[in-house]
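Page 47, continued from p. 46.
Same chain as before, 131 aa.
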Amino acid sequence: MLVLPNFNKAKADLPTILDQWMYLMKHLDKIDKLPNYLDKRIFSRIFELGELAKLTPEEQMSYISSLDRKRDYTNTLAYAKKEGQKEGQKKAEAKAYAEKIASARELKKSGVSDEIISKSLGISLEVINKL
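Result:
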């Protein structure tokens, strides 16, 4: 068990991550920006949370609201991209199928049997018979 008031290491004497954590927790209210010697991803997140805690309730609500709008926007873009990819895939498949049908017509005109056309192009005999 560690009691933060009893943690008395200087910022120059923080060899371990645990020491850095304890120093940050003890001095977070006095630090205006994250020092370089603590500049790690997790410490950045902790520092951001500390900054958020300093805001007034109105500022916190405004901040949370802006985060919600940003997440909504990001999710909307991701959804649109996914739907666009699906639509693009459908168009590509339709184009490929149309090309197969055109090839089947040409092969049929050339006298190639329906069975060979079906096996070669992967089109059902029913479709080929209707051409």
